[in-house]
Amino acid sequence: MRKLFPLLAVIFSLQAGAQPYSISFAGDGLSTVKVQNLTSGIVVDVPAGDVLILSTPTGIGEVNNMKSSRLKVYPNPMTDKSTMKILPPAAGDASISVCDMTGKVLTQFKGYVDNSVQEFSLSGIKTGLHLINVQGNGYQFSEKLLSNGKSNGTAVIGRVSNNNQTVAEKESMKDSKGVQANIDMAYNAGERLKYTAESGNNKTVMTDIPVTDKTVTFTFTECKDGDDNNYPVVNIGAQIWMGENLKYLPSVVGPSSGSQTTPFNYVYGYAGTNVTEARATANFTTYGVLYNWPAAMNGAPSSTNNPSGVQGLCPSGWHLPSKAEWTQLVDYLVNETVAGGKLKESGTTHWGIPNTGATNEEGFTALPGGNRASGGFFSAIGFNGTWWSSTEATSIYAYRLSIDYGSSGIVSSHSDKNYGYSIRCLKD
């Protein structure tokens, strides 16, 4: 037992102040919030009225969302009581045992369980490190539990919900009486969460590093283009940006067609002229459309103003940002050397390795849509993303902003107007 005390001391030290956070959501017409942990990649959906519970890992048995774990226990470490949830892969008889570190069984449950989330209460467990073991029809999994309580009673496993009927009754109560449900998510202190809230066809994106219980309130703004594509929006400083690349596609050509004066629209990797076929491609769905500068401007003259006043191909109530408006965004993010990383989608699902400095801390979710090069070919998808401004440099060149997979910076420069780049729009 003496050997256990140093281990307990280390664990208690690591977990000092650790506690679950309770996050509620509000907003006019709110239907659901998609929550993504930008560090771990875990994603959960939180229906309106439900509460997000961020359970801090213990270092000996992380409390995971049920999509990624068959067994979770929280709080862990426990004092007097704890809750255990299991998701059996198959229905049938099962046994759940709580053992001390010598292997002695302190308490045990035996009975039938469905292959849906089953909830149990744990109490009466003395101070020390314990092992929870679940064994059923063709499966077995376990979890460590640390108790710092002073119970001298009998360890007990109590069943809270035991079949689909009980779960269905809870869902029915929620629908008819508005009873809240808790949605659990693993969370380490300092990790950044991305919230994508929906209200009808409108979506709002926010990011957050929770440090306490709170209610997050969303304001929804419509952003719908001429093809009835609806876009998420994200507030960054004093600006409201589209949270995705524009997908408006009135016509399409292959990369061999280019012009500094005639508008052309492209979908990366597509060489035809059939709009329906182009919209059915994966690159269209993920990265949107590439436009040469005449197409992006839609006949409007160059603008250096802030706001630009150029709607271009943007939805009604939105406009193509000027170079000055892009500069305003970069300045808000400190400077050009770090702004790209703060705007890029984190991870390497779409960006090439190493995706340097990517945090997506504002929720802009910049993607590497590549470009249509002036030589008549597509280039750099997965490695570079570039967006037009409404400001021309000369009769041949216009300003654009570019982000690369190998840098945390953002580059403001100018390109030939016959290049094909992405578009992000700003709210008027």
SSE diagram, text form:
Blueprint (H helix, E strand, L loop, with lengths): L3 H11 L6 E7 L4 E6 L5 E5 L3 E5 L15 E4 L6 E6 L5 E9 L4 E9 L4 E6 L4 E9 L2 E9 L8 E6 L2 H14 L4 E5 L6 E7 L2 E7 L5 E5 L13 E5 L2 E4 L22 E2 L8 H5 L2 H6 L2 E2 L1 H5 L20 E2 L3 H10 L3 H8 L27 E3 L3 E3 L4 E9 L4 E8 L5 E7 L9 E2 L1
What's the helical proportion of residues?
10-25%
Rounded radius of gyration (Å): 27 Å
Q: Strand order, biggest sheet?
A: 3-2-14-15-17-18
Structural class based on helices, strands and sheet pairing: mainly beta
State the major sheet.
Answer: 6 strands, mixed
- Described by the principal axes of the CA atoms, the overall outline is elongated
Summed up, the domain count is: 2
> How confident is the prediction overall: mean pLDDT?
87
The total beta strand count reads 27
CATH topology of the largest domain: Immunoglobulin-like
CATH class of the largest domain: Mainly Beta
Low-pLDDT runs = 1-17, 58-68, 162-178
Q: Provide the β-strand percentage band.
A: 35-45%
At the fourth level of CATH, the homologous superfamily of the largest domain is Macroglobulin (MG2) domain
CATH architecture level-2 label of the largest domain: Sandwich
The separation of the N and C termini measures 68 Å
Q: Number of DSSP helices? A: 7
